[in-house]
Amino acid sequence: MTERLEPQTVVDGRYAIERRIGSGGMADVYLATDLQLGRSVALKLLYRRLAEDPELVERFRREASAAAGLQHQNIVAVYDRGEWDGTYYIAMEYLEGRTLKQLLQERGCLDPDEAIDIATQILRALRFAHRRGVIHRDIKPHNVIVDDDGAATVTDFGIARAGASDMTQTGSIMGTAQYLSPEQAQGHAVSAQSDLYAVGVVLYEMLTGRIPFDGESAVAIALKQVSETPLAPSAHNAAIPPALEQAILRALEKDPAARFADADELIAALEAARGAGSRDGTRTTIVGAPAFAPAPAAAQPPSYGHPLPPSGGYDDDGPGPRWWLFAVGALVVVGVLIASLLLLRGDQVIVPKVVGSELAVAQSTLQREGFSVDSVTRASDRPKGEVTGQSPEGGARAAKGSVVTLTVSDGPGTATVPPVDGLSARDARDLLEQAGLRVRVRAGPSDAVPKGRAIGTRPVDGTQVERGTTVTLEVSSGPEQVAVPSVVGRTEDEARALLTAAGLQVGVTRRDDDKADPGTVLSQDPPAGGKVDRGSTVSLVVARQPAEVPVPDVTGLDEATALERLRADGFAVRERTVDVDSEDRDGIVVDQRPPGGTAKRGSAVRIGIGRFNPPPEPGASGDGSTGGGA
């Protein structure tokens, strides 16, 4: 018996199934409608065969608990959880889009800037979770939804770990082998760095179209994660900038301590790599490097076309043999000057690029390279604490110990999310952007709001947020189209339940019918199988017992047949006998009241049954005597 739910199934009296949209090792995911709130949800239903495993049920419960406590624009929202029909479910935000895995299967690989954008959004989600003590432990392209605007949302916190507790036994492996950190593959304790390792694998795959380690089995892959060094991504894609490759390889270090300290540090490294030169031969100029002119060709003694004096010397008027002494002297002076400049410049190193990093990350990066750090704050549209400028610039050379001055954003200030309900999508977007907010548009069905009009925002209007925050604008795609279920032949109560669960209204007209049971649905409009707007009315014709029904004419029938026919039509029968003068009419209905027409069902019909009494034979007498002569 299949576990798959059919359309129109109502889960827990609230969620009406539309269609299956995905499945995994633990659960099926369905598009469903929340009948209470009238919104689409993704309903994740644990396989019934797994519902008896306490550890898997706990894992499923923890997914709901972990994600429900993480309200962030890059993390899928969890609305509800419950138990139904011997299994468990989670109701989550329904996201339009496709998984990152599907995107990579379609396109092969992504360009560096696009890969950095997606990875940064994943890291922001992880940063939010890590700061609340939650480690995802199963980051992979299958668990990232990317919409048409490039917005990425992390899903599936099914094996997330909160705090210091660990649900698995020592030596067990949880997660997907291709994206497991070495410590996870060995069953050791995980940390935020374990998630960063998985992000490194995802970046590798986004840029090369392949994963660092593969094998014939999960165990073989896990062993490679632990013991083998990944091939440099540039071996597969020469367009990857060196700085980006270095960030990926650092994220893939075997030792967690050698990886990035946190999501912020990896974000900073990716931003620093954005737009960096590739390995395609583009020339890179290092600021501060001395430039040298090419040395002149060796001088040859000039020939003047007249005989040399006996002494072999030159004429006093021509250039003498001492000219080269001046050249050597000039070169010595230049060399001394260059050496002096180099000595004055000291031990110089390349200044890291930290623009775009948070201040703490930038300070740590610069101090690790031997620089001192000073900072000034300036008003900026960038988030508070983000480095917006540096002097010397990233990539320049400067002496170790010298000061790098950072310009740090004092924040863009706060803004109030304005109300946009009922506005056109364009007007709503303009209003939000005028308030200093970024806008991400998501379409969703609505029975109450016309198509193309704003339903609302998330966060809701009136909320105070930092300027530059991304706000989700929900725009109506019109009433949702739903399939009309078949209800002909069902009782009126059954038909109402099915249509209501599908999100439809019910209209009923009644028609006398002496063949169908009263309360049976005789017809429906629109017919079954068609698609209509959610909230539309389906008109039903329901049978009712007629007030009067035809009375069958049973005269001429034998008694038994007449009784059967009248009682089958719902009439009570009253009998009487009627003398008849013919044996052929004995036991036959010879009279009926009413004789025909119509009467109320259940009323009495009176019939007369013929009884033949033969006359006495001629000459018979009562005393038995016979006549005779005297």
Tell me what the structure shows.
This protein is of the alpha+beta class and 630 residues long. The protein folds into six domains: 10-93, Phosphorylase Kinase, domain 1 (2-Layer Sandwich), CATH 3.30.200.20; 98-273, Transferase(Phosphotransferase) domain 1 (Transferase(Phosphotransferase), domain 1); 348-409, Trypsin Inhibitor V, Chain A (2-Layer Sandwich), CATH 3.30.10; 414-476, 2-Layer Sandwich (Trypsin Inhibitor V, Chain A); 481-544, Trypsin Inhibitor V, Chain A (2-Layer Sandwich); 549-612, 2-Layer Sandwich (Trypsin Inhibitor V, Chain A), CATH 3.30.10. The protein is built from 13 helices and 31 strands. The chain starts with 9 loop residues before the first strand and ends in an 18-residue tail after the last strand.
Number of domains: 6
Helix vs. strand class: alpha+beta
CATH class membership of the largest domain = Mainly Alpha
CATH architecture designation of the largest domain: Orthogonal Bundle
**Number of helical elements:** 13
Portion of residues in beta strands equals 15-25%
What would you report as the Rg, rounded to the nearest angstrom?
45 Å
> Tell me, what's the shape?
elongated
**Major sheet description:** 6 strands, antiparallel
- Full CATH superfamily name of the largest domain: Transferase(Phosphotransferase) domain 1
Mean pLDDT, nearest integer? 81
Return residue spans where pLDDT drops below 50 for at least 5 consecutive residues: 159-174, 280-327, 340-344, 624-630
Spatial strand arrangement across the major sheet: 1-2-3-4-6-5
Number of strands: 31
The separation of the N and C termini measures 107 Å
